[in-house]
Design goal:
Layout: H1 14-20, H2 41-56, E1 62-66, E2 80-86, H3 96-101, E3 105-110, E4 116-121, E5 126-132, H4 136-150, H5 152-166, H6 173-179, H7 181-195
Helix pairs in contact: 4-7
Length: 197
């Protein structure tokens, strides 16, 4: 596995984003949109997960609904975040072309950070994060989701933070995501402490 030196809680520089974004980095054309939780989001995830599974077969080792749309009651950008685990995310020849045939487009390629690949689909209404089997980032994302599902105080803290940040102007969506890093790290520390890890 490649060097996983990038800290998930450290903001990404514009230079880093330019180097890893496929097709060029494009500034936001408007404000970040947050909406109230939509009970249709789990169904949308299930539809996408089924489509991915049908497309990749046994190459899709695991899918998970992550991010704010996976947390009932939490406001979110209306984008379904999905984690896809494959044997080796660096080996795009095993999964990228089949995903492209069903409408996914590669958006970000991070070989130095868990060989992460990000695909988008559905007019950017789905983000598909691809990681290799055994990657610790998958468990981190799932743990964060699970903690927000059960901890009302942290769910409300995260919602307040997002509401405050969305009022600001951002050049790139990643800048908004990075601005949440400190509160995500704080919440994760409680999630890990509670689980004894």
């Amino acid at each position: 596995m490649a060097n996983e030196s990038r800290d998930p809680y450290t903001p990404l520089s514009e230079k880093y984003l330019q180097r890893h974004t496929v097709g060029g980095l494009r500034p936001l054309s408007g404000p970040i949109l947050l909406v109230h939780y939509d009970s249709a989001w789990p169904r949308k995830y299930e539809e996408e997960a089924k489509r991915i599974q049908m497309t990749l077969g046994d190459r899709a080792l695991r899918t998970e609904h992550v991010g704010s749309t996976a947390v009932p009651g939490l406001l979110a950008k209306p984008i379904i975040d999905i984690v896809l685990v494959v044997e080796d995310s660096a080996n795009e020849s095993k999964y990228a072309e089949p995903l492209e045939t069903v409408g996914y487009r590669i958006h970000l390629r991070e070989p130095g950070w868990h060989e992460h690949r990000l695909f988008t689909a559905g007019e950017n209404s789905v983000n598909l994060h691809v990681f290799s089997s055994g990657c610790p980032e998958v468990e981190r994302m799932v743990r964060f989701r699970d903690w927000l599902r059960i901890c009302r105080d942290d769910r409300e803290l995260y919602a307040r933070t997002k509401r405050a940040l969305v009022e600001r102007e951002w050049k790139y969506t990643q800048n908004y995501a990075d601005a949440k890093s400190s509160v995500v790290a704080e919440i994760m520390s409680r999630a890990l402490r509670d689980s004894g890890k």
